[in-house]
Amino acid sequence: MAATGVGWSCNTTNNPATAIQLTVKTLLRHVQDLAGFVVESVRQRLDEPNPRIDVDLDADPRRKRRCSCCNRPGRVHDVLAKRRWHFVPLWNIAVFLHYAPRRVVCPLTGRPTVEAMPWSRGKSPYAAAYMHFLARWARRLSWKQTAEIFCASWDAVRRSVEWVVAWGLEHRELSGVTAVGIDELHHGRGKTSLNFLTLVYQIDRGSRRLLWIGRSRTEATLREGFDELEKLHAGFLGGLKVVCSDMWKPFLKVVRERCGAALNVLDPFHVAKHLNEALDAVRRGEQSRLQDKAARKDAKGGRFLLLKRGTKVRGRAREKLKAVLASLNQTSRAWELKESFRNFWRYRSPAWASAYLKAWTTRAMRSKIEPMKKVARTLRRHEDLLLNYFRAKRQYTNAMVEGMNHKARVSLARSFGHRSFEMLKLVLYHNLGELPEPPCSHKFC
Ligand SMILES: [Zn+2]
User: Fold this and answer.
1) φ and ψ at 162, to 5 degrees?
2) d(CA 167, ligand 1 centre) in Å
3) Strand partners, 182
4) How far apart are CA 226 and CA 216, in angstroms?
5) pLDDT tens digit sequence for 245-284
6) Is residue 190 part of a domain?
7) Is there a single domain that holds both residue 254 and residue 275?
8) Full-prediction pTM beyond 0.85?
9) How far is the CA of 226 from the centre of ligand 1 (A)?
10) Same domain membership, residue 360 and residue 319
11) Distances (CA, A) of 385 to 255, 346, 412, 430
12) Rounded distance from Cα 82 to ligand 1 centre (Å)
């Protein structure tokens, strides 16, 4: 006898209602561990505007109830009121599990405790599989989109992410971290201290992830971060060989103080940023002083060409750059200094790099261009740290950190509208933490 509609169902009855019921049950048993429980009935309301499937569960009389705190079998104390859990929707049809949890007398403490239910996590009205499902999608889509697409509330998505992140943070492994990068991330409007976050990344080859996030970017912030990481994994700071950072004084100070054994590497990216800022200041000053109309026209619109790496400016842009440089004398010299500093990073031996740095800073000091002199002084002051880049065999740059930071900015933009620190933290750990996930008997997505 052929089954109607759902021909692949395991039963062969021609009663469609039974066929569907068995199918949902089979599917559910396949995706969710229900050991110790039986599916009593599956009710469907598919014709309603919000179609749904309700699954009633009951305790398997052949199995003993187990305590949720120690997972040992215990005597049943009483039966609580029926609860409802959202489960992963089936073909965009909402699915709910219903069950009246028993309380068992815990064999360890002797107190009545709610029994263990493999699909349930604490008091959450969402089944673990559902939270897992939402949290995974929330990494690919914005939270709002996730909620809309999977008929969940925004709050369900938030709680799911919260649960997954909390589990991941508790279970992550912090051993074997030898290189970290420290960077700041700006968020929101304004430039107050609270508009910055301090991020600590692991930048070991093959293992790049966010390790810690702190509010603002002071000495105290980074100290707190180091303390926390050390507390989570004793010997964390002692195991560090390389710490990458920019020239932000509070960071340098704390790194020196706490990671004495590690090489503090200043990365090319941030030095380039300083040079570019100086060059831009020179251009702005000089451009505003220009009197000649033709020269003013030539100099206009050259900002991005000047800041771009010289060798990457080609074709017509190159012509324009030449015109800009010809019309701005000081800027032209500053630009040449900026471009030539790139050679510094090409050395292999610290000694030669040091010689180059001396020559370059001398040239910059003689240029009589104040912003460039300022950069030269800064670089001289940090010479030892700059040379660490070569001592670390040029393996570590904050380019990796910048990549991570870019990803961080994208995730923050996606979480648009939720600006509290706790929320930012959640989003960043979720997207960049490479956190382990709670075990799940089925991979939904
Ligand atoms: Zn117990």
Assistant:
1) -55, -45
2) 21
3) 200
4) 15
5) 888 899 999 999 999 889 898 878 888 889 999 999 999 9
6) yes
7) no
8) no
9) 36
10) yes
11) 12, 16, 32, 33
12) 22
Ligand 1 center to 160 CA (angstroms): 25
Cα(164) to ligand 1 centroid in Å equals 24
Distance in Å, CA 70 to ligand 1 centroid: 4
The pLDDT assigned to 252 comes to 92
Please check whether residues 381 and 339 belong to one and the same domain.
yes
Q: In total, how many domains does the chain have?
A: 3
Dihedral pair phi/psi, residue 338, rounded to 5°:
-60, -45
Instruction: List the one residue out of 187, 203, 160, 152 whose CA is nearest residue 50.
Output: 152
Residue 50: inside a domain: yes
**Per-position DSSP letters for 282-299, written without gaps between them:** HHHHHHHH---HHHHHHH
pLDDT of residue 88: 93
CA angle 133, 138, 143 (to 5 degrees): 125
pLDDT digits (tens, 9 = 90+) for 8-44: 444 444 555 555 545 788 889 989 999 999 999 999 9
Whether 256 is in a domain gets the answer: yes
Q: Final residue of a domain: which of 70, 100, 120? A: 120
Whether residue 347 sits in one domain with residue 417: no
CA of 239 to the centre of ligand 1 (A): 39
Q: How far is the CA of 117 from the centre of ligand 1 (A)?
A: 13
CA 232–ligand 1 middle distance (angstroms): 27
d(CA 73, ligand 1 centre) in Å: 8
The pLDDT, as a whole number, for residue 3 is: 38
CA 54 – ligand 1 centroid, Å: 30
For the stretch 343-401, pLDDT in tens is 999 999 999 999 999 999 999 999 999 999 999 999 999 999 999 989 888 777 667 77
Q: How far is the CA of 68 from the centre of ligand 1 (A)?
A: 6
- Given pLDDT bands bounded at 50, 70 and 90, which one contains residue 431? very high
Instruction: Please state, rounded to an integer, the average pLDDT across all residues of the chain.
Output: 88
Find the 103 Cα to ligand 1 centroid distance in Å. Answer: 11
Question: Residue 102 C-alpha to ligand 1 middle, in angstroms?
Answer: 13
Could you tell me which of 316, 310, 299 has the C-alpha nearest to residue 337?
310
Query: Could you tell me the distance, in angstroms and rounded to a whole number, from the CA of residue 96 to the centre of ligand 1?
Result: 27
Expressed in angstroms and rounded, the spacing between residue 83 Cα and the centre of ligand 1 is: 21
Nearest to 215 by CA among 237, 186, 189, 181: 186
